[in-house]
Amino acid sequence: MLTKFRAKMIAKLYAPHMRAGLRVLDVGCGNAVVSKYLIDKFGITLEGTDILEYLEEQICFKKMDKPNVLPYADGSFDTVMFNDVLHHTENIEALLREALRVASKILIFEMGPSGWARFVDRFANVFIHKDMPVPLNFLNKQEWVELLAELNCKFQIEEMRRPFFGYPLKHCFICVERKV
Ligand SMILES: C[S@@+](CC[C@H](N)C(=O)[O-])C[C@H]1O[C@@H](n2cnc3c(N)ncnc32)[C@H](O)[C@@H]1O
């Protein structure tokens, strides 16, 4: 139920950037429930990739051999998405550079730093995915601005409102585009 709720939240955010046939790479797609929801909703052509493989939905998928290397040729996609993935990675900048190699646009749905965010990740690591890296690499808005400035791209960062009163997590939406 929570996964569907997240999928709907992400779809609403990404809607202005989606169109039928758009070639999308979902990095860190996890169980692919969100990926499948986006495929069905927007008619996009989506492929998933992840360092782990635990798909619950049937989508095109390639497992990553290295954490900072996307196993695709330059320009293979229009858009890369990272949904609650980057705080699980040690080197966010390297992964974003890889994303900009394979696509011209990146969409990011990412948890901000908080005690709840750390708790959720630790909990998921112990009880759901023991193999998932949990470096707790959460960035605040200023840290995102500094990191994205290094990429020499256009970017927008939107701190999202909580979807309902008492919702414990604070997300942000980031759109990064190559300069033409
Ligand atoms: C919290 S889950 C999110 C899964 C999915 N994106 C979603 O929204 O349901 C984080 C995912 O990031 C993956 N991950 C962690 N480090 C990664 C890396 N360096 N490259 C790609 N995926 C990574 C994990 O294996 C895990 O599937």
Largest sheet: 7 strands, mixed
What do the pLDDT scores average to?
A: 94
Radius of gyration: 15 Å
- Could you give me the name of the CATH homologous superfamily? Vaccinia Virus protein VP39
Q: What is shown here, in short?
A:
With 180 residues, the chain is α/β, with parallel strands linked by helices. The chain has helices at residues 2-14, 33-42, 92-102, 115-127, 141-149, and strands at 23-27, 45-50, 60-63, 79-83, 105-111, 154-159, 171-177.
Write the layout of secondary structure elements.
Layout: H1 2-14, E1 23-27, H2 33-42, E2 45-50, E3 60-63, E4 79-83, H3 92-102, E5 105-111, H4 115-127, H5 141-149, E6 154-159, E7 171-177
Parallel strand pairs: 1-2, 1-4, 2-3, 4-5
Antiparallel strand pairs: 5-7, 6-7
This protein binds S-adenosylmethionine (SAM).
